[in-house]
Amino acid sequence: MPGGYMGKYCVVNLTDGATETVEPSDEFYRKYLSGYGIGAAVIAQRQKQGVDPLSSESHLGFCSGLLTGSGALFSGRFMVVGKSPLTGGWGDANAGGFFSRELKKAGYDAVFFTGRAEKPVWAYLTEKGVEIRDASALWGKDAIETEELIRDKLGDRRVQIAAIGRAGEKISLISGVVTDGGRIAARSGLGAVMGSKGLKAFAVRGKQKIPVAEPDRIKTINKKFMKEFNESKVADRLSVRFMNFSSRIISRTGISIPAQASTLRELYKRYGTPGLTVYSALTGDMPIKNWDGVGYLDYTLDSAAKNSDESVIRYQKRKYACHSCPLACGGIIDIKKGRYSGTEGHKPEYETLGAFGGLLLHDDLDTIIEINEMCNRAGIDTISTGTCIAFATECFLKGIIDEKITDGLKLGWGKSDEIVKLTEMIIQREGLGDILADGVKRAVEKIGPDSAEFAMHAGGQELPMHDSRLDPGYGIAYQCEPTPGRHTISCFLYANLFNVEKIFPEARRMVRGAKGKIAKNVRRYTAGTFYMQLINSGGMCLFGALTSRIPIVEYLNAVTGWGLSADDYFRTGERILSLRKAFNVREGIKPEDQKLSDRAMGKLPLKEGPLKNVTIDMDALQSEFFQTVGWDPATGGPTREKMKELGIDMLT
Amino acid sequence: MPDRNKTISVTVRLFTGLDRDAREVDQNPRDGITFNLPKGTRLRRLTKELDLPDRYSLAYFVNGKQAGLLRKLKEGDEIACLRPSAGG
């Protein structure tokens, strides 16, 4: 058997406990790699069209990466996959930590759950197979308590556990799956799918060796890579030098943020993502006041500084690195205030600092740390929760909802106590929290159309803390990708940092063949998203790809022994992307269903700040993107011909 | 007491670890460092005085707006110096 994959996945029916193990051919792995590649291929074939994601017929998959555990750096991520109850289309979410490697060591590339348990259960996977156990004593516990209780029960500290918290149990459509004491695969609402199946936790433990075709080659690649990784390149800094002298931030058509891989690397090493807060607030990258405000003017430098770099790092007790990661951007911090005071937790990420910071004009870091821990334990997405609270706050201030609906809460910008209380209400599904627990799109359906303007989402998924008016590439990602409202795919900046044209000759040809700056940027974006399919299916980390030129092709060939060309893999990236989008088409999701909120396009442009008078033409960007990937503008997915060409016509 | 006709007072805030790397720093970057400079001083000179590492590759904001190193500073300006970054 070639290396990289374990050569089997299993499907567990929680209704009757039946398990089916499948051993796909090498061809299957060559076509879809692993991660959400095989996740999408298996679910597209096994799950019927139109199945309700919260019904017993739906499938929920846990997939490791093709490169995970092979010795390849940055390869510690796993993916949760399924039909999203939040968007109605393809759903996936990933997280780092140590779960992915353990899943493979148990002998499986992926495990899919279908059916519905009569009573709450947890599943335990080892080399012997999957065992279903009673979770009555775990139901109602938070995700971190659940991890500890399972480890104690098994008497094994090395067992890795993915669990839902209170939010997943209560089928909140913005809930996720938690591992490693507070890392969360948060997006797409897949925690609700897990909760609907009565599956409280999935524990994995194994001792199998992960096969690698050329282990010595991996060592050589790593050695060369680490030498470059620890250097700061002069050429890397030139663009920033130019930007400083020209003092321009080019939006609409150009590269909006003069970031450089080596600087980003240093910042991530030193601070993790909190190193970005001030810069994001000043450049216009961070949405302020529910996307209607301006950094510096509305969210002062003082406020941003309270939630950035040095201010956050003061709480850090020790650094945290996921499996095989040389960056170590994570951190374990001391919690000093609120219900978890005196305990340890994960350092809040930039997204959380933005969603509970600038988005709400809120700057109390102790409160944000408390909320971060509340959300991690409850297993709920901090981006979506912050966005829901910003939505409710604006509705309240504009008189669309009143104190009867808020249960007496006087919502307002920057009010810590009210933000904490409403977060708790969302987790517990109490009062207004019950309305918000299913995301802003559904909240508009309950509150009324007047509130639609304040609901920041695309296709039902709340928007991340990166403004599409600054980098319109995010606009394409938010509106056109299989998982709308997602920032971890591609944008104009990412595509540059990825160095796609240097990795794939086909990407170079694609970009060179474009006429005009917009077309060039969109094509570079497209190459970036093909590349990210490889990164995600390989179990690799976006931050590795942003901060270095990951030798992805070399890794894939050394691990698998396939000997494929860079362009062969580029094509694989295109196939996986198209398969995921074809799933949406099959489920009846149309391009207009994934439309970006008007504010995020600047339909009524801001009057001040770096995004002053910026409106992005999403129709033109979408059209250019669909043309580049060969997708039908009417369906928003690959044409029949394209699917046949890519070998994914089982979905037609 | 500096002569207000000949000098200006500006506040500098260093982020992304620049406070650790610069020469002037026993102060909390959140509070900022106050400098009295001759009128007409450009940002370039201030960054040189601060001895910022790799100063040509940093991002500068004066009163919330991105500024080039040739920017002439004015009384009361608030200057933020950062390593440019994105993503996350």
TrEMBL record, chain A:
Keyword vocabulary terms for this entry: 4Fe-4S, Iron, Iron-sulfur, Metal-binding, Oxidoreductase
Reported cofactor(s): tungstopterin; [4Fe-4S] cluster
Domain Aldehyde ferredoxin oxidoreductase N-terminal per the UniProt entry, residue ranges: 5-208
InterPro entries: Ald_Fedxn_OxRdtase_dom2, Ald_Fedxn_OxRdtase_dom3, Ald_Fedxn_OxRdtase_N, Ald_Fedxn_OxRdtase_N_sf, OxRdtase_Ald_Fedxn_C, Tungsten_al_ferr_oxy-like_C, W-dependent_AOR
One Pfam family of this chain: AFOR_C
Alphabetized SUPFAM superfamilies for the sequence: Aldehyde ferredoxin oxidoreductase, C-terminal domains (SSF48310), Aldehyde ferredoxin oxidoreductase, N-terminal domain (SSF56228)
Gene Ontology molecular function: any one: metal ion binding
Family: Belongs to the AOR/FOR family.
Protein name per the record: Aldehyde ferredoxin oxidoreductase family protein
TrEMBL record, chain B:
InterPro entries: Beta-grasp_dom_sf, Mopterin_synth/thiamin_S_b
Organism domain of life: Bacteria
Entry-linked SUPFAM superfamilies: MoaD/ThiS
Gene3D superfamilies attached to this UniProt entry: 3.10.20.30
Protein name, entry field: MoaD/ThiS family protein
Organism expressing this protein natively: Candidatus Desulfacyla euxinica
